[in-house]
Design a protein that fits this description.
By secondary structure, the chain is mainly alpha-helical. It contains 26 helices and 5 strands. The protein folds into 3 domains: 234 residues, no CATH class; 175 residues, no CATH class; 195 residues, Rossmann fold.
């Protein structure tokens, strides 16, 4: 296929190319979770379906860990390949697989050993217990296959084979659909048959993904790669922590719902089993339509991100408009289906008594009353991630479930029993919709005010490079130490260029991130738990990771072309393999830092030191995260100096002398 130009190609064509594969994968994954319940409902009874909903939080817990390792490994792989560090990428993938294997085996054993207690914790009743035990024990056997297979699926996508990953999922889902009726109706195995069908499907998908280990495009896994490293495992896990938190939030919501139905179902005509069963089914039906919205929105992410970084704000707004229209169209169709034909939808999952059908219709019509608002809320969350505002994105992603639904459900159920849980649905949807609209209105107004002209902040020295020898000087510095000014004077004296603020334009072009975002975020880690919640489905890198890769590429390109002084941005680590590099760390006393911060940066003298320490802590966290080294460990540097001991000008002279001394030693 001809490469698509994100800045010029028709937005409709771009959305079609990016969104359709994403929608297919997400819908297939949603169907995978729903198929068992359809055949169980027809082949056993609705109580057995309720049992699968009690086991579902256990599955979500395991999925949380497997996505943490899978998405984290994928991010690590992409990050290291972007840095041209293939060996480290290979070790990251191998260690991601190792930790997934270890944790999956531990979880499988724990769940198998404590299944009765877990069933009680997740809302299982006496009537559901026997079904849940039959289903749960078999599912527990398949946990290692499911978790490792899911981890590998994410890694395969990151290696540039989304089609292979998608086919693996589709084969598993189709096989499950074939085996379910055979095991339930032909072999008369009941709910155990459904669990066995799921187990076999997971094993098949697992082996398909295992076969890919010898087909990696970007790396070659060897025995050396599989040498365990706790440090790498920790890094991989931290990169995927947001995926873990997202799934744990889902598990928490399901647990609260089941608990409330247990508490108040006893006093209702519906009892406890009907609400637990019905709510699980309704949410899985809704998941199909939600997956379409997420797929459309995630497909728009590269389009929005690229054009926002290129300052093509009209294309950003046009893409947002199309995504919102498509998302609202899907959610409107969902609303119509839920309000007009709930009997048909619940009938797909088998028959039940009059009370069962009554509560099912109420759940579709009441709980999903404002589902039409979900199109705006979901699309908005992913839009803010695309333009480099992950905090707003995470807030929108979590607001509906955690911030609004759980508190409202707990309060309303005290007054209205099981119906209170249903009323909490539209309340949470409405509140989340209002928040999304407010944030979108403010953001689109900002886009309208922005101009297409790029603001270049270039700080270059006069004259060409006078010396023939190629040399690179990197300067890491404490905030307020005068390190930036040291770099400027040093560049002038050496007759070479200084790279600091002028890197922003280069990096904006490379990463697709806006210059304003880069300037604000480039040397800090955006709340690790927040930044990833709406990461692009096929790109597990956060904007922070993309920014670091783009800066690294720009720095390497500069270092190959010319002599220069580079301030900050982990340049000492990025260029550590360069021959003619001189690495400096500049610091100063607290009194000197405060004085400079107040004089040159306008900080309040009373709070200046606190703010300085906060900024330095962020720099240290950023450096440690991406280099695996300690920022203030002076062993990494050729020379470190306290500016306050000598003053700026003398400091520059000393550094010049040290550079010359190192040159003599090397010669």
């Amino acid at each position: 296929m001809k490469p698509l130009d994100l800045g010029k190609e028709k937005i409709g064509r771009l959305l079609k190319a990016f969104a359709i594969p994403c929608v297919i994968s997400l819908v297939v994954n949603a169907l995978y979770n729903m198929v068992d319940q359809i055949f169980i409902g027809w082949g056993v009874n609705y109580l057995a379906n309720g049992a699968t909903n009690v086991i579902f939080p256990i599955t979500v817990l395991c999925l949380a860990f497997s996505l943490m390792f899978g998405d984290g490994t994928s991010a690590y792989l992409s990050l290291k390949l972007g840095e041209k560090r293939k060996k480290e990428a290979e070790k990251g993938v191998a260690n991601g697989i190792i930790i997934s294997i270890v944790i999956s085996l531990i979880l499988g054993v724990i769940i198998f050993a404590f299944l009765p207690q877990l069933i009680t914790f997740f809302g299982g009743t006496d009537n559901l217990r026997s079904y849940a035990m039959d289903y749960g024990y078999i599912i527990a056997i398949g946990i290692p296959f499911m978790m490792i297979g899911t981890t590998l699926n994410s890694i395969i996508r990151a290696d540039g084979s989304p089609k292979y990953a998608m086919n693996s999922m589709i084969i598993g889902a189709v096989l499950n659909m074939i085996l379910d009726p055979i095991s339930i109706f032909v072999l008369d195995m009941g709910i155990k048959g459904a669990a066995i069908a799921t187990l076999i499907s997971q094993i098949v998908s697992f082996f398909i993904n295992i076969m890919y280990l010898k087909k990696f495009k970007s790396i070659n896994l060897t025995k050396e790669s599989f040498k365990p490293s706790l440090k790498i495992m920790k890094n991989v896990s931290m990169l995927g922590i947001s995926s873990f938190i997202t799934q744990i939030a889902v598990m928490f919501v399901i647990t609260v719902q089941n608990t409330l139905y247990n508490m108040y179902g006893v006093d209702s005509k519906f009892g406890t089993e009907i609400p637990i069963t019905v709510h699980g089914i309704v949410m899985k039906v809704n998941m199909i339509l939600t997956s379409i919205i997420i797929g459309i929105s995630a497909g728009s992410q590269p389009i929005v991100g690229y054009n926002y970084g290129a300052k093509n704000y009209d294309r950003v707004k046009k893409t947002l408009k199309i995504v919102l229209l498509l998302s609202v169209s899907v959610s409107t169709v969902s609303f119509i289906l839920f309000q007009t034909m709930p009997e048909v939808l619940i009938g797909i999952f088998g028959s039940g008594d009059e009370l069962y059908n009554e509560f099912a219709c109420s759940t579709f019509r009441i709980f999903l009353m404002l589902t039409v608002c979900n199109g705006i809320q979901i699309a908005s969350g992913i839009f803010f991630q695309a333009i480099g505002k992950p905090t707003k994105s995470a807030f929108l992603t979590l607001s509906r479930q955690i911030l609004f639904f759980i508190p409202v459900a707990i309060v309303l159920s005290k007054y209205y029993g099981v119906m209170g849980v249903l009323y909490a649905g539209p309340v949470a949807d409405g509140l989340a919709f209002v928040i999304a609209i407010i944030l979108l209105v403010f953001e689109t107004k900002k886009l309208s005010k922005k101009t297409a002209e790029e603001q270049k902040q270039v700080q270059e020295t006069q004259g060409p490079i006078e010396e023939k020898e190629h040399r690179i000087i990197t300067i890491n510095r404490e905030y307020g130490s005068g390190g930036r000014y040291v770099g400027e004077l040093l560049a002038q004296k050496l007759g070479i260029k200084l790279y600091d603020k002028n890197l922003i334009t280069m990096v904006s072009d490379e990463s697709g991130l806006s210059a304003s975002y880069i300037e604000e975020k480039e040397q800090s880690i955006t709340g690790t738990l927040l930044a990833n919640f709406n990461s692009q489905y096929y790109n597990n890198l956060t904007n922070d990771d993309n920014l670091f890769i783009a800066e690294s590429n720009a720095i390497k390109e500069i270092a190959q072309k010319e002599s220069c002084v580079i301030v900050g941005r982990c340049a000492d680590y990025v260029l550590k393999d360069e021959q003619n590099i001189f690495k400096i760390f500049v610091y100063s006393d607290d009194e000197g830092k405060v004085k400079r911060a107040v004089t040159y940066y306008g900080l309040d003298e009373k709070t200046a030191l606190k703010e300085i320490n906060k900024i330095n802590k962020a720099r240290q966290k950023h450096y440690n995260h991406y280099t695996g080294m300690e920022w203030k460990d002076l062993e990494h540097y050729d020379f470190s100096i306290n500016v306050d001991k000598f003053g700026i000008e003398k400091t520059v002279e000393i550094i010049q002398e040290m550079i010359n001394e190192k040159k003599k030693i090397v010669k």
